[in-house]
Amino acid sequence: MPHLPRSSPLFFRAFLASTFLFLDITTHQLSLTLSHIYSNRAYKTRTMSAPKSYHTQATGAAAETVANHSKESDLKLYGSCFCPFVQRVWIALELKGLPYQYIEVDPYKKPQSLLDVNPRGLVPALRHGEWGSYESSVLLEYLEDLEVGPPLLPPGDAKLRAHCRLWTDFVNRHIVPSFYRVLQEQDQQKQIEHAHELHSSFNTLIEVADPEGPFFLGPDLSFVDVQVAPWIIRLNRVLKPYRGWPDPEPGTRWSAWVNAIEANDSVKATTSLPDLYLDSYERYAGECP
């Protein structure tokens, strides 16, 4: 293969062709992706000339869920509508049908009630009666231990539960940081490298998931799905507009998983309209591709 300048669209095409195979990306899709990356200048000009800020109120279906959970409750979720770590816990609360109160937190105006639970003022945080804790994976384990509603970890199967915890750790160590590296990196070549890492991590997760799916363990949403779902829905809403992330190829295991996540009622109930994510993540993305 002849040497291509790293800034050349042909170089990026060659990279994508060798990297995105596990997603079954076709030549046509690659062309569409590259067309977006190299010709979407009007969109770039609009976003860079009119910077957006983070949102402090959910929109769409998530706004309805907030309204339905605004009354005082013994179980309180402190969250921010654009935060994927909050959405993990929020999905679990919706799935389990637990009564709870959702409290929206402005990241720059943290209430004392949140600081009493987490002195760092970070969300998500839970207050349950006189007890409180934080960190999304810890909170998901706590909700499981309440043994209310559908379980996310397989009951009575210690080995399969350990399997889920192992791949939850993989999501936190590989998929989550790779997502932000792709989003925040401004150098094109480094963006490509980070995109390769993220694709490789998703591929690894697919390889250990139930082959029939559509979810990680089979037909039902479970612990690993909840852990990774917020980042899957942000592929289309954040990485696609800002970094040209391609849509999944129809008929693949990856497509089945993405579609199942998008269609799940608890995920939909905690997801705002696309503009909320586009605006809220602009400060992380910097320039569009």
TrEMBL record:
Residues 73-151 form the GST N-terminal domain. One of its GO terms (molecular function) is transferase activity. PROSITE patterns: GST_CTER, GST_NTER. Residues 157-278 form the GST C-terminal domain. InterPro entries: Glutathione-S-Trfase_C-like, Glutathione-S-Trfase_C_sf, Glutathione_S-Trfase, Glutathione_S-Trfase_N, GST_Omega/HSP26, Thioredoxin-like_sf. One of its GO terms (cellular component) is cytoplasm. Keywords: Signal, Transferase. Pfam families: GST_C_2, GST_N_3. Residues 1-27 form the signal peptide. The keyword Signal applies. PANTHER family: GLUTATHIONE S-TRANSFERASE OMEGA, PTHR43968. This is Glutathione transferase, putative (AFU_orthologue AFUA_4G11770). It comes from Emericella nidulans (strain FGSC A4 / ATCC 38163 / CBS 112.46 / NRRL 194 / M139) (Aspergillus nidulans).
